[in-house]
Amino acid sequence: MPSLMTLRTLATAVTLVAATPLTVAPASAETRPVVQTVLDETVAAGIPGMVAEVRDSGRRTFAAAGVADTQSGRRRMPQERFRVGSITKAFTATLVLQLAAERKLSLDDTVQTWLPGLVTGNGNDGSKITIRQLLNQTSGLYNMYLDEKMLDKYSGPGFLEHRFDHVNPEELIAVAMAYPPYFAPGTAFRYSNANYDLAGMIIEKATGTTYAEQLAGRIARPLGLSGTYLPGKETRIRGPHPRHYSTLWSADPDAKTYDVTEQNASYAWAAGGVVSTTGDLSRFLTALHDGTLLPPAQQKEIWNTTISTEGSAWIPGTRYGMGTWQQQLSCGQTVWGMGGAINGSYTYAMGSRDGKHTIVTNMNGDWNNPIAALTKAVETEFCPTATR
């Protein structure tokens, strides 16, 4: 998502091992009945469709409710690709940390070192902001999606007119630079998509290639994530996918729903532009936990969830890492993962600390408090007694 979980909600809120084949079981009353109930309830409340993929002890279970297409009635399927929003940030952080492990950059490097003259003006100073502070959201940089024009263009009625516009990251950062920082770098937590667009630009500067090429070469191909990619200027989603439906964040309970599947997601880019699948996200999450993608020092960094999010426009009961976070559930269990939203799509990918037990959920609608439904699905999986 350009901001986790929505532009309005949370914006105002290497050695690689091959994946182990898993047994695929259809959703049924004998597999994940409580999770299925959450999906059914969410669809009954008005969301077009919702899916959940659970991996536990080497077994993969997929459950679905509702439809991928309200016109044809086509049902949702395991192989579908969808826009994952701010889960993109976990991919971005992983790429930066891989480069740090290879000593192509340091997390203590300043933004000014890599992007001279870009972060300046109105009290912003790239020479005082480190790459680490970008990744753990402590830079203090303004979240450009809170700009009124940006809100209208990309999360309000204006989106219908601008949905195919292409915007480059420099333009996005320029909007953030029009505002003073929230606080001095390193002194607090504040979620800002500017942080991850800057990180994406640093990846390109350090490698001499595009973010999309780095994502494919370092993560997607080695892990076998065949449905994961950054669209770039493409407006259509490749391969099988659900339609993405949006009310454009309207507060009106009777708001009109729009099909926003086709869009130029360059406005989200390294902060929220990636497309993926439930299976790919589950494999990626496990690889972040088991050390497949990052050496020990960098793996510790990405899961160093010591940054308190309390008092910020963020999900309660969480602590932030680098594009990742931990969340304490109502039963006292703690899960680790990531989530994201973009117009028409909400996604959660959470799991146990060792990555052996994960749940990835997605809904192809962005209204009716999606975060609550996604969290409930996670709770039914990790707190089954309490939820029953």
UniProtKB/TrEMBL annotation:
Span of the signal peptide = 1-29
- Which SUPFAM superfamilies does this UniProt record tie to the protein? beta-lactamase/transpeptidase-like
State whether keyword Signal applies: yes
- What is the recorded name of this protein? Serine hydrolase domain-containing protein
Q: Which InterPro entries match?
A: AmpC-like, Beta-lactam-related, Beta-lactam/transpept-like
* Beta-lactamase-related domain location: 38-370
Molecular functions per Gene Ontology: hydrolase activity
Give the species this sequence originates from: Nonomuraea rosea
Which keywords describe this protein according to UniProt?
Hydrolase, Signal
A Pfam family reported for this protein in Swiss-Prot or TrEMBL = Beta-lactamase
Which PANTHER family does the protein's record reference?
A: D-ALANYL-D-ALANINE CARBOXYPEPTIDASE (PTHR46825:SF7), D-ALANYL-D-ALANINE-CARBOXYPEPTIDASE/ENDOPEPTIDASE AMPH (PTHR46825)
